[in-house]
Each structure stands twice: as C-alpha cells, then as structure tokens.
Amino acid sequence: MKILLIGGTGIISSAVTKLLCERGEEVYLLNRGKRGGGEYDGVVNLIADVRDESQVEAIVKDLQFDAVADFIAFAPSDVERDYRLFAGRTKQYIFISSASAYQKPLSDFRITESTPLANPHWEYSRNKIACEERLMRYYREEGFPITIVRPSHTYSENYIPLGVHGRNGSWQVVARMIAGKPVIIHGDGSSLWTMTHNSDFAKGFAGLLGNLHAIGEAVHITSDETLSWDQVYSAIAGVLGVKLNAAHISSDFLCACGGYDFRGGLLGDKAVSVVFDNSKIKRLVPGFVATKRFDQGIAETMKYVLSHPECQTPDEEFDHWCDAVIAAQTAAAATVRDRFTVMS
User: Fold this and answer.
1) Cα 332 to the chain's mean position, in Å?
2) Assuming Cys at both sites, which of 92, 125, 257, 258 could form a disulfide with 100, CB separation 3.0 to 4.6 Å?
C-alpha cells in the first residue's frame, strides 16, 4: 500500500512508521523534517509545514494514496484543510482523535466506542470531538472515506508515562524517586488506568489501513491491561530498585495550587478511571492483541532513559512546586488536627 503519514515521528506515529516499513509498505512522511524519519529504509520524506496548504498542495498534487493518516490535526480547521487536500487523492483518511474525548464523568466505567463524547474540562478533547463531527459530516454528505482512531495513554521506549509531571517531562519525578523524595500521585492512587505501548498500538493501527470495514467507523486502540496509578508508579520505582514514597493529593487540590494547568490532563482525563472494551478493534483486525505488559514495557523504557542522558532533563521549578504542594497539604492536615485535638 501507498501510505502518507502526516507527522510520523511522534510517540505514536513513529511506531506506526517503523512497523509499516518493516512490512514493506510504501511510506511517505509529511512533516517539517525537524525530528528524523530518515532512519527507516524506504521512507519518502515530503518536507513541508502542513499548515501551509499551498505548499502541501504543490507537493501532493500528482500523488495518489491508499491511505492518509494525520497525527497532528487538533482543530476543525485542520481536518477541513485535509479534506480540501486529500478528497479524491486517497481511498482512506484516518484521523487520530483521543480517548480523552469520552464523557467526563463516565456514566459507565466500561468504555466502548458508543460511549458519549463530552469533556467539559479540556479544550483539547472538545476540539478533537469537533474534528470527529466535521469528518463524519464529510463522510455522510460527501462520501469522504474516513476512519477515526482514539488512542489512550500511549508510551514508548523513551517516554515515561505519568499522571503528574512538569513542563520538562517525566524525568524530575524519576529523580525524586531515586533521591527518596515523596512523589505526587493524584487522588488516592487507586483509580484505574490503561497504558498502551506504542508498538502494540501500531499493530492495531496497521490492521485498519486499507480495511473496508473501518470506513466510516470510530475505534479506540488500547491494551486490555488495567492498572491503578499506585501500580504504575510502583512499577517504575521497582525498576529503579527504590521504595516508592507516595504523596497522594486530590486532583482538585493540585488544580487549585496553580503553577501548572492540570485541569484538562487530570479532571478531563487521568483522574477518571477507565476500562476499555476493545471488542471493536479485535473484530476489525482479527488477531489483534496488545502483548506488551506494562511492567515489561516500562522496564525497557527505564533502561533506555537511564542510559541516554539527553532524556534526563532536570526541572527544578517542578521539583520545588512538588515540595511546596506536599508541605501545604501536610500543614493543612496538621492545622485541622491540632484544632480538633484542642477542642477534644
């Protein structure tokens, strides 16, 4: 198949690129050429800023594709542009949405593709929903051959997936673990979450390409493994060979502390327990199963990060913020305890 990936070098899309190249597909990457993509044999790199529609039009005007997948479309204007560029040029257009688009709070903890889409906490998710709605209209009214894919929390060999971290990524949380300092875990650590390795996501995604049964459909691709957030952090601490010193702090309190905008990422996503029903992807892609168990995948990730200094970006601001938040909660508890001790 002749496949165009818009992006193709991110956490999710890089695994898709790698798998498709291994399978011998004809892969084109459209991006600005800032983050690699040339390491895969057979890839054709189309260097352009997808936001420059005239530039992209000039590059793809004589090309036809079996599938086009956009990994970096975030607003309705992005998919409207893609429609103008690729209607008539592809047999399938795949939009990468997000599982964070599912309703918050959930009416049923089991998430299927029929779970309503509504997220009052996160503009990112609402924009993804608006993109989906626009594309479904193109499909129904114009016959544009769309497929919508909703990933959840996907990680890779160099990306450590966490609930709360600073602007420089997850390394400072790891550094706190190594130093024996308390690590913030949102809520009480018992809410349920799903982690999916990008290589597993790629297997499901590849099975949707050129799949006539996927046209007009929305499908999420996740692991079947469910973990509590305490288990997620404990698995990381276990790889490091240290004891987890957990500081459980409510998501509402974290959002109220300021300094970082956690409202979308927590209240609109990670603070809500999720259990995915993956029956649909397994029906569309017979034989699909996520095989990378989290403790195995995170061990590989930590080995990579610990051996690559460029992945170890310090974040003193976030470190001080964690200390301040933990101290504030400790002081508040002490104030209430002292008051009621006196009263008694």
Assistant:
1) 34
2) 125
3-state SS class at 19: helix
Of 4, 78, 66, 74, give the one whose Cα is nearest residue 37: 4
> Average model confidence (pLDDT) for the chain?
95
Q: Are 232 and 161 in contact (CB under 8 A)?
A: yes
- Whole-model pTM: value is 0.95
Q: Please confirm whether the linkage preceding 105 is cis (ω < 30° from 0).
A: yes
Residue whose pair of structure tokens reads 């695994």 in the numeric block: 15
H or E stretch covering 29: strand 26-31
As given in the structure block, the two tokens for residue 149 are 């894919």
Tens of pLDDT, residue by residue over 220-235, are 999 999 999 999 999 9
Q: Return the domain boundaries, the chain.
A: 92-332
Question: Rounded to 5 degrees, what are φ and ψ at 4?
Answer: -110, 125
Residue showing tokens 């400072």 = 172
Residue 72 has pLDDT above 70, yes or no: yes
Q: Which amino acid is at 214?
A: A
pLDDT digits (tens, 9 = 90+) for 153-201: 999 999 999 999 999 999 999 999 999 999 999 999 999 999 999 999 9
Confidence of residue 344 (pLDDT cuts 50, 70, 90): low
Q: Residue 185: beta bridge partners? A: 248
The CATH classification number of 92-332 equals: 3.40.50.720
Q: Match 């990730």 to its residue by tokens.
A: 301
- Which pLDDT score, from 0 to 100, does residue 105 have? 86
* DSSP state letters, 58-93: HHHTT--BSEEEESS--SHHHHHHHHHHHTTTBS-E
Q: What pLDDT was estimated at residue 39?
A: 67
41: its two tokens: 């044999």
User: For 340, phi and psi rounded to 5 degrees?
Assistant: -80, -20
Q: How confident is the model at residue 209 (pLDDT cuts 50, 70, 90)?
A: very high
Q: Where do we find the tokens 């949707």?
A: 208
Residue with tokens 């991006």: 31
CA nearest to 95, candidates 117, 128, 142, 143: 128
pLDDT at 296 > cutoff 90: yes
